Amino acid sequence: MKLLILHRVPYSFIEYHRVIDHGMHDVVYVGTSAQLATVPPDLPCIKVERPGRAGLAEEVLTLFSPDDSFDRVISVSQYEMMEAAQIRRVLGVEGVSPEQVHIVNDKVAMKAAVAGCGLRVPRFVRCDEALTASSADAAPWAGKTVLKPLDGTASKDVFVFATFADARTAILDGPPGLEGWDPERFQLEEYVEGPIFHFDGVMLAGAPVAIVASRYLGTCLEFAQGIPQGSIQVDDDGGRCKVAVEYLRAVGIDNGPFHLEMIEAADGMVFLEVGARAGGGHIKETFRLATGIDLVAAGLACNLEWSPLEVNPLSRWFERTPGSKVYGDFMFPGHLLGSRHCAIRGGEGFRTHPDVVRWTQLDPGASLPETVSYFDFELPVSGIVAGRSSSEVTSLIREILTTVRVMPLEQPTHRPTSC
Q: Where do the ATP-grasp domain residues begin and end (predicted)?
């Protein structure tokens, strides 16, 4: 096969050679000079540099044409899904189309697709439509209302209002603190009460290769607001995974990884949002520990239509023996501390705890991120916990979240417990 890889994510994060035999296939990497520098120098491939001054699709399509006869165009970056689809269309390469990407990138489109299949979603309306409605029109719902971007991630620029009327008033002039307000890029959504679950896994030909249900401790919005968060795998999914697959099929995720979030309301599961990608934070690692499957490699294999369950001596898509324990993770944000450096207190006893599989802490003197981040190398403290049951893991993570303290420092320090 002749493969065009739109190279953005550092090579060490993906390690394409685990799945793609570069000696057997013709592999072309295209990227900026800095992006291509992460590709191993001894990897058998062709590297094509693009300037990086214009859009990805614009630059790639000046470098390649349908005459290049690529079999696949590969992109693992969630930020380039649409441009990758546009490149496929122009080059005449099969794969995910722009229309399919739109459904999983646009929160209104994805909810419309789900609702069109008879599945439950929160009531919603685009902000531009809400603003053009007459003030005399009845509100579509009365209670708490969420304002969020159509294509946002990590709960950035998300606001919660007490009522729909309050939300509509706020968007007339733009929510305070939100720069570049554009109502066409936002939607209003009914706030649904209940615990939030996330479902992670890989789909192949419309069926799940593997799927794991987890429940959040806290929410992604609270994490964006500076509150520590946890996530625990569910040892008994209670039929939730079966429901999750119906939602995945509704938005057309047939091949590759997924991260689906749903709310468990009093009368059943309600769709929240979905991504055609592996989840952030420690999800890839906790999924691998539980199932033995590497989400990144398996997702790449599925997008190439190679089953991750096939035996291939050139790759390690999955381990033969999945874990027998339940796993969870915890994360402490640092972007709202009001300082570029922090001190960590209360974690000494947990770092050597037998059920703490991983404890990651910023190096002394390292700077905190300025915006929301789920990368463990940017978080003050994060880690993974193992246990015999969900309740056991929940108990330990709750203890960590309530005991450990992350405090701002004006100047960096070199103490072992500081960052």
A: 111-304
224 shares its domain with 373: yes
Write out pLDDT tens, residues 76-106.
988 899 999 999 999 999 989 999 999 999 9
Token output for 406: 């992350």
pTM: 0.89
In the numeric block, which tokens belong to residue 163?
Answer: 């009522």
Inter-residue contact 299 to 256 (CB < 8 Å): yes
Q: What is the DSSP string of 332-370?
A: E--TTSSSSEEEEES-HHHHT-TTEEEEEEPPTTPPPPS
3-class DSSP assignment, residue 271: strand
Which residue blocks in 234-380 are alpha helix, DSSP H?
A: 240-250, 283-291, 295-303, 348-351
In a domain, residue 105? The reply is no
State whether 223 and 136 are in the same domain.
no
- How does 187-207 read in b/e, with b if 16+ C-beta sit within 10 Å? bbbbbbeeebbbbbbbbbeee
Residues 6+ apart with CB under 8 A from 280: 154, 259, 374
Does residue 284 share a domain with residue 203?
yes
Confidence tier at 316 by pLDDT (50, 70, 90): very low
> According to the model, what pLDDT value does residue 314 have?
34
Give the domain range for residue 347: 196-409
In 24-108, DSSP assigns E strands to 26-31, 46-49, 72-74
Number of domains composing the chain: 3
Secondary structure (DSSP) of 115-152:
HHTT-----EEEHHHHHHS-TTSPPS--S-EEEEETT-
Closest of 329, 400, 406 to residue 366, by C-alpha: 406
Stretch (H or E) spanning 105 = helix 98-105
Q: Is the per-residue pLDDT at 320 higher than 80?
A: no
* 391: amino acid identity, one letter: S
Decide if 232 is inside a domain: yes
Residue that is written with structure tokens 């499957």 in the block: 293
